[in-house]
């Protein structure tokens, strides 16, 4: 086996220090992504810093809404009564991902940090700028059925695979981060990044920083929500396209709306212009169709993912119909 | 005394062992001094290995050997000077790379983890050569197989369909599909001196494995002991002895210790076969009232450059329907890929998807109910061989299936049947698979406690072979099932055929039946009765009276000449009800009804389970399964269990299995025809046809993923 050190700190400060000293040290949470990457030789750590004993598991109500510790498992979050009641979109999204066994192990922080499922990233004999910067993008002219239609670069067209992230983006979550320089809090939407020239960077977290938790502000999106995930089998498959839709409806008018997509970009893809369009519009299939059209502006497909140009707007329409009750 | 009878839903005799984890599979035997072997796959797709740097691996902790083409001991059966050199890939015998993933080295270490790590340190240098893995680009390289069974077939006029007033001419694509049994392929091998070897290996036929290993190492087959008592699914992937199994035996010889070689899930995608990528052209011509004038079926199928693989994808079009004119063509396209293998419903599953889809297309052109179209072209005899059927109840299959699926609710205009937002569709797909019977020998033993033990070197890859054999014996002997044990999966037992082609119950069941009859005759004679007396036998009593410690006899059974006068097939008709969401292309298979004429059903419980399993396989073929190459690299991009989609529980609806359950009077004494393959053949077409009925969209390239329906 590749030799590596293993530490299991009990405090956040020690965990960060343990990481700072070594460039090839990694936090270990549920391990459902990291251990796979180690088995494939994609990550070869010198040190694993097991953070499972840090006190970051709580799900708490706060004045602003809900605070969820980075080590709360996906199952704990999805099944939390507070989440189900106040943020049902998050429950739906998490439960659309992976399998019960994986969700029991997976953590909020680990889910945010999970790497892309692009096959060229996963196969160490193939080129991948994300894995080996400068080696080329295997997907660009390869089998790119699962790949991005928004915000890609010629260096990388991979997508963020997470379902949870799509809901958290839609819900305007905030991320709490601790590092050697202290605490900082950023918008969830600013956590992940587009590939640009540096596809090796999935997000804006610095090497020695730890995600400690997220805040989700209370919102009126408690009833008319839906997470639509379209995939190649009914369960246990990553999204071809997914949509998190949340509506605040009064009478027949859309007072407020949140829309985000998964499976279409290097980061969870918030549909801000479509949201702006929908605000104040009547609940109708026509409004939804127009919003979907607006949302698709700037989309660009590759050889094998042309279908997403049609599937994505259709999914937006359907998710809004489901969220609003126009369909069931 | 309770008598168990053929047809009873007897629980699996090994069910308790299996669900309590006490059934020992090939990878679970604790052999003293066991070592662990891990294969190192090639990362090029064609060329030669110039050198393998094994230094780092050899120096890694716990490593006993790093075997490469440059230091491997010779496998005698691989050498060209032997009478019958082994066909296919000869691992570590030379330095040629034919496909990506072909093993170039084998590391043996004291633990699996250490072997895995050392394997990652092995580095090869290659001389690369150009290669071809793209099927479509190489279609023109298709050749008629060397295997003489695959010549062009013509009955009547070639392409007669073209002269008909109504014509369907279409192309259908079956992508490469992996067997992916839950149990990985694993072989544990150890030598006893220089001329005796024992294997625990995942095998569908221990006698075949015994012969293969004996040939490879130039041994007396008696000195090759193969055990494969439990197999965690195989679907055809263990019909043959694979090169890595030979390599395990070779490694055990080199390190002089027992060696266990387990493939990884990823290696299962390249080393143990698959249903080959196949493009089929179907031409159907019919009169306005739906009588077929001609059927043309042409198939191009993927094969490997180092070994030819063939299967019966076009055969079904020669006999299933009553067309005076029929012609078929079958070609293989050799590529830089691992060799395919028969996969459940081999050939016929692929073929019937094309034929049954085309027939469905014809029914809409004719505005004729698909069942009515099949009835109008019902084959009362086998026109291919010009023989009567031994038995055929396909009409009854249509009738019962239509009733159970609710065919009367089917709309004859596609896209018009709705349930809320969902489009509802119904489809039928039929199949046939040859009913075979091969020579089998069974040994039966009666002990003083009145118990019966039967042994035969049969296999059980999951259907419940032993359970079926116990029932046949119980019925024939007039004894309760719990007095009888049946042992299999051991090459020391009397020979039985490999478990394939749905022939086990027919072949081994006949031997068990005949052995029971022979035992009864012997006991009746001892008791002074007529040999064929049907009076209840006092099994223990007769032994006692004659002071016999036990009674044992061996009985051979094979088919008789009568069988040559008939055409013998199992028939199926599968029905599917699907819901399709028009906006998102999501398909829900809501219900499958499978009606089968497979002769007499020995055990309704395990047979139903087998039918359900076959339908699940058919749902995978229809809806989710496809191994995808990146032809620039010659590697699969989804060669793992996360990205290659085997159906999950959520994909599986209610599946109803119905048996006609009428004994075939010709094939064998019990009247069974076999269900293993037929359970899958026709399912994909039934689903694709239901999707068309729901949406008006014809998917001719499997699998039916959402993108194909929006
Ligand atoms: C077969 C399969 C199918 C799947 N299907 C889906 C799916 O459909 N949808 C979906 O959304 N997901 C899916 N997943 C992914 C799954 O959700 C992730 O593996 C999981 O969320 C990762 O969480 P973890 O706690 O196990 O992370 P780990 O594997 O422990 O860690 C992952 C990464 O995050 C880092 N990390 C962990 N915690 C922190 C922290 N607090 N601060 C900073 N860095 C941290 C680690 O260092 C590591 O780099 C699937 C996974 C598998 C294996």
Summarize the structure.
The complex is a heterodimer of chains A (328) and B (710). Chain A has helices at 12-20, 34-39, 74-79, 81-86, 88-95, 100-105, 108-113, 119-122, 164-170, 272-278, 285-295, 308-324; strands spanning 5-7, 25-28, 47-50, 59-61, 65-69, 174-179, 182-187, 210-217, 224-231, 239-250, 253-262, 269-270.
Write the layout of secondary structure elements.
The complex is a heterodimer of chains A (328) and B (710).
Chain A: E1 5-7, H1 12-20, E2 25-28, H2 34-39, E3 47-50, E4 59-61, E5 65-69, H3 74-79, H4 81-86, H5 88-95, H6 100-105, H7 108-113, H8 119-122, H9 164-170, E6 174-179, E7 182-187, E8 210-217, E9 224-231, E10 239-250, E11 253-262, E12 269-270, H10 272-278, H11 285-295, H12 308-324
Helix pairs in contact in A: 5-9, 10-11, 11-12
Chain B: H1 15-19, E1 35-41, E2 47-53, H2 55-59, E3 63-67, E4 96-97, E5 103-109, H3 112-121, E6 123-128, E7 153-155, E8 166-174, E9 186-191, E10 197-201, H4 206-217, E11 224-227, H5 243-255, E12 259-262, H6 268-271, E13 278-286, E14 292-304, H7 316-319, E15 325-335, H8 348-366, H9 370-376, E16 381-382, E17 387-388, H10 394-405, E18 418-419, E19 422-434, E20 440-446, E21 452-455, H11 465-477, E22 484-487, H12 504-526, H13 539-545, E23 551-557, E24 569-580, E25 587-597, H14 604-624, E26 629-630, E27 635-636, E28 654-659, H15 683-695
Helix pairs in contact in B: 8-15, 11-12, 14-15
């Amino acid at each position: 086996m590749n030799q590596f050190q293993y530490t299991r700190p009990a405090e956040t400060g020690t965990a960060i220090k343990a990481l700072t000293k070594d460039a090839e040290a990694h936090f270990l949470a549920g391990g459902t992504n990291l251990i796979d990457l180690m088995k494939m030789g994609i990550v070869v750590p010198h040190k694993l810093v097991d953070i499972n004993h840090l006190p970051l598991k709580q799900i708490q109500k706060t004045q602003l809404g809900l605070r969820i510790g980075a080590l709360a498992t996906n199952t704990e979050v999805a099944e939390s009564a507070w989440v189900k009641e106040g943020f049902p979109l998050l429950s739906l999204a998490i439960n659309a991902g992976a399998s019960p066994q994986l969700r029991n192990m997976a953590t909020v922080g680990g889910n945010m940090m999970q790497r892309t499922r692009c096959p060229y990233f996963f196969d160490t004999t193939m080129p991948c700028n994300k894995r080996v910067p400068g080696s080329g993008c295997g997907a660009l002219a390869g089998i790119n059925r699962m790949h991005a239609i928004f915000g890609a670069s010629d260096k990388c067209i991979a997508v963020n695979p997470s379902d949870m992230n799509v809901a958290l983006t839609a819900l305007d979550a905030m991320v709490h981060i601790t590092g050697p320089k202290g605490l900082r809090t950023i918008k969830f939407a600013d956590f992940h990044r587009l590939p640009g020239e540096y596809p090796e960077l999935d997000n804006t977290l610095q090497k020695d920083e730890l995600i400690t938790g997220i805040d989700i502000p209370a919102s009126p999106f408690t009833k008319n929500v839906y997470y639509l995930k379209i995939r190649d089998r009914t369960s246990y498959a990553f999204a071809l396209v997914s949509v998190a839709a949340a509506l605040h409806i009064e009478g027949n008018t859309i007072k407020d709306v949140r829309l985000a997509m998964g499976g279409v970009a290097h980061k969870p893809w918030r549909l801000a212009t479509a949201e702006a369009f929908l605000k104040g519009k009547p609940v109708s299939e026509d409004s939804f169709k127009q919003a979907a059209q607006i949302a698709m502006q700037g989309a660009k497909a590759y050889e094998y993912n042309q279908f997403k140009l049609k599937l994505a707007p259709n999914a937006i329409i359907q998710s809004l119909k489901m969220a609003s009750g126009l369909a069931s | 005394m309770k008598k168990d009878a053929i047809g009873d839903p007897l629980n699996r005799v090994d069910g308790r062992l299996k669900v309590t984890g006490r059934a020992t599979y090939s990878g679970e035997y604790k052999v003293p001094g066991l070592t662990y072997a891990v294969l190192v796959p090639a990362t090029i797709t064609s060329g030669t290995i110039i050198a393998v740097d094994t230094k780092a691996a050899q120096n890694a902790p716990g490593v006993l050997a790093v075997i490469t083409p440059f230091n491997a001991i010779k496998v005698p059966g691989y050498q060209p000077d032997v009478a019958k050199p082994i066909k296919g890939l000869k691992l570590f015998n030379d330095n040629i790379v034919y496909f990506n993933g072909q093993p170039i080295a084998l590391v043996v270490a004291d633990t699996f983890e250490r072997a895995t790590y050392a394997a990652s340190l092995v580095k090869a240098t290659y001389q690369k050569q150009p290669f071809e893995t793209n099927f479509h680009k190489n279609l023109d390289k298709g050749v008629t197989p060397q295997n003489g069974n695959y010549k062009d077939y013509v009955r009547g006029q070639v392409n007669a369909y073209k002269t008909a007033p109504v014509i369907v001419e279409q192309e259908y694509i079956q992508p490469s599909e992996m067997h992916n049994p839950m149990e990985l392929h694993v072989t544990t091998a150890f030598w006893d001196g220089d001329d005796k070897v024992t294997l625990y290996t995942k095998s569908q036929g221990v006698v075949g494995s015994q012969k293969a290993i004996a040939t490879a190492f130039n041994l007396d087959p008696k000195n090759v002991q193969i055990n494969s008592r439990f197999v965690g699914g195989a679907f055809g992937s263990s019909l043959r002895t694979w090169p890595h199994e030979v390599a395990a035996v070779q490694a055990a010889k080199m390190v002089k210790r027992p060696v266990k070689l387990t493939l990884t899930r990823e290696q299962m995608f390249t080393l143990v076969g698959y249903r080959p990528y196949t493009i089929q052209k179907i031409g159907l011509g019919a009169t306005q009232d739906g009588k077929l004038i001609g059927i043309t079926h042409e198939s191009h199928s993927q094969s490997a450059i180092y070994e030819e693989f063939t299967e019966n994808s076009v055969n079904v079009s020669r006999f299933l329907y009553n067309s005076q004119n029929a012609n078929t063509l079958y070609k293989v396209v050799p590529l830089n890929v691992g060799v395919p293998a028969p996969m459940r419903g081999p050939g016929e599953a692929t073929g019937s998807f094309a034929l049954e889809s085309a027939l469905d297309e014809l029914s809409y052109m004719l505005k004729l109910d698909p069942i009515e179209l099949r009835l109008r072209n019902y084959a009362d005899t086998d026109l291919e061989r010009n023989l009567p059927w031994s038995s055929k109840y396909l009409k009854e299959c249509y009738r019962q299936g239509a009733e159970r699926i609710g065919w009367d609710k089917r709309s004859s205009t596609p896209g018009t049947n709705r349930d809320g937002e969902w489009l509802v569709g119904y489809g039928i797909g039929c199949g046939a698979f040859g009913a075979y019977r091969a020579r089998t020998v069974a040994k039966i033993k009666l002990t003083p406690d009145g118990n019966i033990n039967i042994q035969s070197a049969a296999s059980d890859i999951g259907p419940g072979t032993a359970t079926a054999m116990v029932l046949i014996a119980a019925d024939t002997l007039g004894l309760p099932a719990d007095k009888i044990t049946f042992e299999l999966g051991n090459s020391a037992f009397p020979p039985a055929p490999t478990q394939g082609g749905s022939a086990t119950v027919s072949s081994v069941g006949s031997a068990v039946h005949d052995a029971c009859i022979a035992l009864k005759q012997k006991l009746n004679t001892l008791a002074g009765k007529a040999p064929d007396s049907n009076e209840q036998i006092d099994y223990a009593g007769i032994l006692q009276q004659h002071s016999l410690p036990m009674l044992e006899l061996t009985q051979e059974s094979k088919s008789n000449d009568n069988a040559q006068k008939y055409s013998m097939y199992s028939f199926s008709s599968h029905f599917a009800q699907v819901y399709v969401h028009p906006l998102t292309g999501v398909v829900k298979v809501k219900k499958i009804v499978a009606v089968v004429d497979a002769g007499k059903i020995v055990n309704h419980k395990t047979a139903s389970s087998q039918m359900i399993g076959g339908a699940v396989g058919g749902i995978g073929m229809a809806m989710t399964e496809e191994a995808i190459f990146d032809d620039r690299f010659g590697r699969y991009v989804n060669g793992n269990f996360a990205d290659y989609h085997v159906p999950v529980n959520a994909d599986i609806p209610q599946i109803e299995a119905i048996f006609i359950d009428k004994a075939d009077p010709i094939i064998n004494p019990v009247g069974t025809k076999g269900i293993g393959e037929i359970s899958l053949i026709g399912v994909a077409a039934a689903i694709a046809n239901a999707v068309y009925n729901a949406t008006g969209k014809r998917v001719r390239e499997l699998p039916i993923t959402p993108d194909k329906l929006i």
